[in-house]
């Protein structure tokens, strides 16, 4: 394997120390909840099961980029920059539609285990999902033969990274004045047995990707991105194992969360426009 | 030059679109199928001698060859009791000229990733039997998928071929495992036919649902894929559970369309799994009869 001498590399084979932690980590699923009744129970961070984390959004955080956005869901922090359209490199034939070039990267220190500098398989998969989620919302016929570069960096990951990245990239695209049909917002949901959890944290996501020996076998994670004004699902990504009814029920909850996030994103954009205008006005008055 | 070809392409695809679109009025497609019909599928097992398991699936013009190799590896530290499985898709330029160079790489990673996520749940494929010695040694299955010809609906064909190849896979039986001063000493059975088989009952089949106009169709041909607005891939097990779900093409779906698509997908997927199991049983019988009739590698 080629080594990269310019960056600090860990030893070739290393084991994260959390593996050797006490086995209390793998206790039963109820460990995540304070009480056993799923409907009245609250989660470790004090949220109700169907309660989304509080969202903070901001556009125009990177001055060098054409458009940028930052999003924070408690401990999940994502930054995204979008650059001017440029000609698609190494492409001979003419393409009628412009392309989105999405790169999603976890910062090396973003997870409990260290991430490498090179894109791994998971990051590639998430990049592709991000691209699929954004494509329907962008008027790609407006910039034929050109590509828009979208770089997403996950600074800190605590569950819902893909959903946060999609919302963040949607905002950054709007901030970069890329012609779009609609804003894209996304949400994630975890299923563990009978329990549906909106916007699961890292620990809850881990819980949902395991399977427990019990009557209801459903488990898994779903992420949905939605164009709010058109009620069109731009991407849906599910892993785990569920029944059709469970998937449909989760979808209803997810669409509701996306619709709740939509006005927050809108307000964030309006605020950035108002700010720009008021900044421009100041020199005239003085 | 470039422009004229692209116009020509436009007319061809527009003509196609009309023919594909209008034919739907009578619930019939270009080739006489109804919306939820598959094209004829051919299946062959055990056709590569050096692989532990292999299968070839031909779905009309789509031709997939899958070989499974088993090797010994060290389990990952966070899953010491499990074996490993890895998918590698090769879109060779034989299939279509578009795959030349790095052309097929995106599609290949997409298919590989999606297969990986549909196998991720222990309810679809249990990796525990693949463990030899906890935390020290396990079996790793390399599933190599070769796309020989591309005639639309790659996802479904690939998943059928993968399930068939895993059904056919023989994992050598380990007789004794001993730890010798930190080194592992494995003793495989002397009899090359002393093998065990993988449990494939819960492995899902992928069903691609393509939306053309207002219609949802399964098993799209290459022309139909050209006209599609959006497609959805659902991984369905024999018991009708959804093990993975993903939108794969450009375009978006209304929530109602999505729920309808899921219902259709599960229905079709259950049928597909049943048909595959029957075919696997028949093929197995043919192979076990004293003089199996060989049809040739690629007929």
From TrEMBL, chain A:
GO biological process: nuclear mRNA surveillance; poly(A)-dependent snoRNA 3'-end processing; rRNA catabolic process; rRNA processing; U4 snRNA 3'-end processing
UniProt main location, coarse: cytoplasm
Gene Ontology MF terms in the entry: RNA binding
Keyword tags: Cytoplasm, Exosome, Nucleus, RNA-binding, rRNA processing
Record CDD domains: RNase_PH_MTR3
Keyword Zinc: no
Location(s), subcellular: Cytoplasm; Nucleus
InterPro entries, alphabetized: ExoRNase_PH_dom1, ExoRNase_PH_dom2_sf, PNPase/RNase_PH_dom_sf, Ribosomal_Su5_D2-typ_SF, RNase_PH
Highest taxon of the lineage: Eukaryota
Keyword Nucleus recorded: yes
Transmembrane segments: none
GO cellular component terms, semicolon-separated: cytoplasmic exosome (RNase complex); nuclear exosome (RNase complex); nucleolus
Family: Belongs to the RNase PH family.
Protein name (record): Exosome complex component MTR3
Organism: Frankliniella occidentalis
UniProtKB/TrEMBL annotation, chain B:
Record-annotated Exoribonuclease phosphorolytic domain positions: 38-172, 202-267
Keywords of this entry: Cytoplasm, Exosome, Membrane, Transmembrane, Transmembrane helix
Biological processes annotated in GO: exonucleolytic trimming to generate mature 3'-end of 5.8S rRNA from tricistronic rRNA transcript (SSU-rRNA, 5.8S rRNA, LSU-rRNA); nuclear mRNA surveillance; nuclear polyadenylation-dependent rRNA catabolic process; rRNA catabolic process; TRAMP-dependent tRNA surveillance pathway; U1 snRNA 3'-end processing; U4 snRNA 3'-end processing; U5 snRNA 3'-end processing
Record-given protein name: Ribosomal RNA-processing protein 42
Gene behind the chain: LOC113216030
Recorded GO CC terms: cytoplasmic exosome (RNase complex); nuclear exosome (RNase complex); nucleolus
Coiled-coil stretches noted in the UniProt entry, renumbered to this chain: none
Organism: Frankliniella occidentalis
Origin: domain of life: Eukaryota
Location in the cell: Cytoplasm; Nucleus, Nucleolus
GO molecular function, one term: mRNA 3'-UTR AU-rich region binding
């Amino acid at each position: 394997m080629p080594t990269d001498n310019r960056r600090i590399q860990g030893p070739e084979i290393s084991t994260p120390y959390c593996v050797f932690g006490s086995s209390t980590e793998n206790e039963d699923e109820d460990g995540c909840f304070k009480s056993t009744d799923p409907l009245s129970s609250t989660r470790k961070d004090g949220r109700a099961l169907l309660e989304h984390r509080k969202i903070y959004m901001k556009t125009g955080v990177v001055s060098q980029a054409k458009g940028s956005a930052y999003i924070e869901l408690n401990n999940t922090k994502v930054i995204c920059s979008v650059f001017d359209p440029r000609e698609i490199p190494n492409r001979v034939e003419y393409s009628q539609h412009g392309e989105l070039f999405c790169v999603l990267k976890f910062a090396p220190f973003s997870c409990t285990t260290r991430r490498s500098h090179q894109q791994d398989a998971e990051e590639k998969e998430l990049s592709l999902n991000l691209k699929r989620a954004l494509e329907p919302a962008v008027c790609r016929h407006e910039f034929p033969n050109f590509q828009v570069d979208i770089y997403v960096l996950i600074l800190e990951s605590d569950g819902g990274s893909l959903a946060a990245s999609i919302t963040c990239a949607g905002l950054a695209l709007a901030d970069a004045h890329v012609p779009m049909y609609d804003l894209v917002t996304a949400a994630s949901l975890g299923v563990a047995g009978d329990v549906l959890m909106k916007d699961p944290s890292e620990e809850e996501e881990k819980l949902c990707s395991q399977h427990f020996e019990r009557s209801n076998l459903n488990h898994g994670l779903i992420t949905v991105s939605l164009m709010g004004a058109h009620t069109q699902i731009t991407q849906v990504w599910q892993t785990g194992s569920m029944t059709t009814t469970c998937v449909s029920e989760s979808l209803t909850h997810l669409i509701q969360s996306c619709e709740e996030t939509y006005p927050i994103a809108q307000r964030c954009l309006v605020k950035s426009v108002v700010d720009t205008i008021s900044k421009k006005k100041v020199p005239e008055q003085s | 030059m470039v422009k004229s070809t692209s116009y020509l392409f436009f007319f061809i695809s527009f003509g196609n679109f009309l023919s594909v679109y209008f034919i739907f009025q009578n619930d019939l497609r270009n080739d006489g199928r109804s919306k939820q019909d598959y094209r004829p599928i051919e299946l062959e097992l055990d056709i590569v001698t050096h692989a532990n398991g292999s299968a070839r699936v031909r779905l009309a013009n789509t031709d997939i060859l899958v070989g499974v190799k088993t090797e010994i590896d060290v389990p990952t530290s966070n899953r010491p009791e499990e074996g490993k499985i890895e998918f590698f898709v090769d879109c060779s330029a034989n299939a279509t000229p578009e795959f030349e160079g790095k052309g097929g790489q995106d599609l290949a990673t997409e298919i590989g990733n999606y297969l990986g996520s549909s196998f991720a749940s222990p309810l679809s494929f249990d990796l525990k039997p693949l463990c030899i010695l906890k935390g020290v040694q396990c079996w790793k299955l390399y599933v190599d998928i070769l796309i020989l010809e591309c005639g639309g609906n790659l996802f479904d064909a690939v998943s059928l071929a993968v399930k068939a190849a895993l059904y056919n896979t023989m994992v050598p039986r380990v007789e004794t495992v001993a730890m010798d001063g930190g080194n592992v000493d494995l003793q495989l059975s002397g009899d090359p036919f002393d093998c065990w088989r993988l449990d494939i009952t819960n492995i899902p089949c992928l069903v691609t649902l393509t939306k053309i106009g207002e219609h949802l169709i399964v098993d799209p041909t290459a022309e139909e894929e050209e006209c599609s607005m959006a497609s959805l891939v659902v991984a369905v097990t024999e018991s009708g559970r959804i093990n993975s779900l993903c939108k794969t093409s450009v375009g978006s779906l209304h929530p109602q369309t999505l729920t309808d698509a899921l219902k259709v997908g599960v229905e079709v997927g259950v049928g597909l799994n049943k048909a595959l199991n029957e075919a696997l049983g028949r093929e197995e019988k043919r192979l076990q009869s004293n003089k199996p009739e060989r049809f040739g590698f690629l007929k």
